[in-house]
């Protein structure tokens, strides 16, 4: 980062940013890519370029865009979100769920303008959306003349876990957001990829949202290093997540959502508060997130090795069993 070749990305381009954008566009099989400071901003730009005010966006009911982006779709693009609820007890909505959620044409109902998908799915415990399912959702969208945007903050993880190439995943959406500050370990950064026309529009949106950065090559350099050094090692995080999950499963009646990738959701025993568990774990040096009142979330990453992951699992197991006994 200290040695990065830099320019002024707002005025005439930063050479290191340009190399990163070209590399990621190539990995996804898209014409162009645009570097953003955050994944949320890139997601919101993706929504903005595909929609118009007064329309609605269809996406999974537990999607990050609905729950963790401060109602940005409504506030910034003037669209309403239509949550697609997974049927038959599934964790993630399917093509059939999306098709059922599209409203029949009516002068009384908003018109759909976009379908969003998320891969991996954070709220479903890092679940991977398969290539087949994504293509099925895309087919439903195309049949209804709707573009598809993919929140692929952790698409790197989905690719490593399944062996599906990023380019194959990229064919399933008109625009894809990818984050560098999750499993790849960068301090800052995300990318939006798509065809030339849509990314030119996204560039204007980024400027409007305050996302233009000057000597941003120092940040792009970190992302280029991460693609070289950290992409293939994501498999280690996935293995560590499984080891953590194995330590916790069944503790005091706790139930673990079997992890596909590096996110582990733990459903606590009846009557046990996630806030109490998170506080007790923090005292023992294990940092968790309360997902809701009775579920906690753990994420493995490059700063936590195999033994630390197992140790963290044993610590959480002891805490849950102690609280269950009390």
Short account of what is shown:
By secondary structure, the chain is an alpha/beta fold. 43% of the residues lie in helices and 16% in strands. A hairpin with a 2-residue loop joins strand 10 and strand 11 (295-299).
Could you characterize what this model shows?
The chain is of the alpha/beta class. It has two domains: 15-229, Aspartate Aminotransferase, domain 2 (3-Layer(aba) Sandwich), CATH 3.40.640.10; 234-325, Aspartate Aminotransferase, domain 1. The chain has 13 helices and eleven strands. It has helices at 15-28, 39-50, 64-67, 72-77, 95-101, 131-143, 155-162, 166-170, 196-208, 217-229, 234-248, 274-283, 306-325, and strands at 32-36, 56-60, 80-84, 112-118, 148-151, 175-179, 190-194, 255-257, 263-267, 289-292, 295-299. A seven-stranded mixed beta sheet has the order 1-7-6-5-4-2-3, with helices on both faces. Strands 8-9-11-10 form a four-stranded antiparallel beta sheet, with helices on one face. Helix 6 links the parallel strand 4 and strand 5. Helix 1 packs across helix 10, helix 2 (39-50) packs across helix 9 and helix 11 runs parallel beside helix 13 (306-325). The longest helix is centred in the last third of the chain and has 20 residues, at 306-325. The chain is globular, with a radius of gyration of 20 Å. The protein starts with 14 loop residues before the first helix and ends with a helix. The model has no long low-confidence stretch (mean pLDDT 97).
């Amino acid at each position: 980062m200290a040695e990065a070749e830099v320019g002024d990305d707002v005025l005439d381009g930063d050479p290191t940013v340009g190399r990163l954008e070209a590399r990621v566009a190539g990995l996804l099989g898209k014409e162009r890519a645009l570097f953003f400071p955050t994944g949320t901003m890139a997601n919101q730009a993706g929504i903005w370029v595909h929609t118009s005010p007064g329309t609605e966006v269809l996406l999974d009911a537990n999607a990050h865009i609905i729950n963790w982006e401060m109602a940005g779709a409504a506030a910034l693009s003037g669209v309403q979100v239509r949550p697609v609820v997974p049927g038959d007890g599934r964790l993630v909505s399917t093509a059939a769920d999306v098709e059922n959620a599209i409203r029949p044409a009516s002068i009384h109902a908003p018109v759909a303008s976009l379908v969003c998908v998320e891969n991996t799915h954070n709220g479903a415990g890092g679940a991977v959306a398969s290539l087949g399912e994504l293509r099925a959702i895309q087919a439903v969208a195309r049949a209804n003349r709707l573009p598809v945007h993919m929140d692929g903050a952790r698409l790197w993880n989905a690719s490593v876990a399944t062996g599906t190439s990023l380019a194959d995943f990229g064919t399933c959406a008109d625009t894809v957001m990818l984050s560098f500050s999750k499993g790849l370990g960068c301090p800052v950064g995300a990318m939006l990829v798509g065809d030339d026309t849509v990314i030119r529009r996204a560039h204007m949106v980024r400027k409007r949202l305050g996302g233009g950065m000057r000597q941003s090559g120092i940040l792009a350099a970190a992302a280029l290093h991460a693609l070289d050094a950290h992409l293939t090692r994501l498999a280690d995080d996935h293995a560590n997540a499984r080891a953590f999950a194995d330590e916790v499963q069944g503790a005091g009646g706790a139930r673990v959502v079997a992890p596909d990738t590096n996110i582990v959701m733990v459903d606590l025993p009846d009557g046990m508060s996630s806030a109490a568990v998170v506080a007790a774990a923090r005292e023992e040096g294990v940092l968790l997130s309360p997902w809701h009142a009775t579920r906690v979330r753990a994420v493995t990453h490059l700063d936590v090795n195999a033994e630390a992951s197992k140790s963290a699992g044993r610590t959480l197991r002891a805490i849950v069993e102690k609280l269950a006994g009390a």
